[in-house]
């Protein structure tokens, strides 16, 4: 398949966005899997999206700083609440996360009910518009992701669950606006799950899986003229299943 200049101009920012999301979400996803709180990203991402929708409902400029502050503030509030509930009721934390997600989703639907473009906004929140990522925003996103990774691999382990939830909220707030909620969840969970039984270079394998899925999924969506976000999710799931089968079989022989 040949790619012309116009297609390449759309494809490369989308791939870079996918790599940036993969860079932060793979290590966070491994921690989520270890903690047994797989659906936390859906809840926090939905809360961040609710912040964006609420800002739009209030008439704030969609590209303004106020919207970003609303999204991040909402996500950090959700992180603070989930930190408290994990300390107070650890046995039912996953159920609480599910309730937070469904309440935030319902609140978003209510805010969009009388908006003539509500259905399109909800679709963008869920499936994202990865092919329309602006190259101008990528350096800023890369800087933010770099700061998150520096804290994650640095002092975050000394601040416990508060640091985890805060960094998680920051990463998800950026990512859900960049690629959509479905890709955020897939990137967080699938590479971590696929390499769960890998004993050697797990992080590297998970990174490679995420990057390969974004590249293959974007190329397939371009060739088949199908939605890119959904194609990347399905491609990542397929590649993840292959990796999981291979690594689990190999480890069972050791």
What does this structure look like?
The chain has 254 residues and is mainly α. The protein has one domain (5-249): ABC transporter involved in vitamin B12 uptake, BtuC (Orthogonal Bundle). The protein is 79% helix and 0% strand. It has 10 helices and no strands. It has helices at 5-35, 40-57, 65-88, 93-112, 118-127, 138-152, 160-179, 181-194, 202-224, 228-253. The longest helix has 31 residues, at 5-35. It is globular. It starts with a helix and ends with a helix. The model has no long low-confidence stretch (mean pLDDT 84).
Uncertain runs are none
Tell me the domain tally: 1
Counting DSSP E segments of at least 2 residues, the number of strands comes to: 0
The largest pleated sheet is described as:
none
Examine the secondary-structure arrangement and name the CATH architecture: Orthogonal Bundle
Oligomer status: single chain
In CATH, what is the homologous superfamily? ABC transporter involved in vitamin B12 uptake, BtuC
The CATH topology assignment is: ABC transporter involved in vitamin B12 uptake, BtuC
Cα-to-Cα separation, first versus last residue: 41 Å
Radius of gyration: 18 Å
Q: Which CATH class applies here?
A: Mainly Alpha
Helix percentage range? over 70%
- Count of separate DSSP helical elements: 10
Shape: globular
Strand content: under 5%
């Amino acid at each position: 398949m040949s790619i012309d200049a116009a297609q390449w101009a759309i494809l490369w920012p989308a791939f870079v966005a996918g790599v940036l999301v993969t860079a932060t979400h793979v290590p966070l996803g491994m921690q989520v899997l270890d903690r047994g709180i797989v659906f936390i990203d859906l809840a926090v991402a939905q809360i961040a999206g609710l912040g964006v929708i609420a800002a739009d409902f209030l008439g704030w400029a969609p590209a303004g700083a106020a919207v970003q502050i609303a999204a991040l503030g909402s996500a950090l509030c959700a992180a603070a609440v989930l930190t408290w509930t994990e300390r107070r009721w650890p046995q039912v934390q996953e159920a609480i996360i599910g309730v937070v997600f469904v309440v935030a989703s319902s609140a978003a639907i209510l805010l969009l009910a009388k908006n003539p473009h509500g259905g399109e906004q909800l679709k963008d929140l869920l499936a994202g518009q990865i092919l329309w990522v602006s190259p101008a925003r990528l350096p800023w996103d890369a800087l933010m992701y770099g700061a998150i990774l520096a804290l994650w691999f640095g002092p975050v382990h000394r601040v416990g669950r508060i640091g985890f939830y805060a960094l998680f909220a920051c990463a998800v707030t950026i990512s859900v606006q960049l690629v959509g909620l479905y890709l955020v969840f897939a990137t967080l969970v699938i590479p971590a799950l696929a390499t769960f039984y890998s004993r050697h270079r797990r992080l590297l394998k998970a990174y490679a899986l995420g990057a390969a899925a974004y590249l293959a999924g974007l190329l397939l969506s371009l060739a088949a003229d199908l939605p890119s976000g959904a194609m990347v999710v399905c491609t990542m799931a397929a590649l993840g299943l292959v990796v999981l089968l291979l690594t689990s079989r190999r480890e069972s022989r050791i």
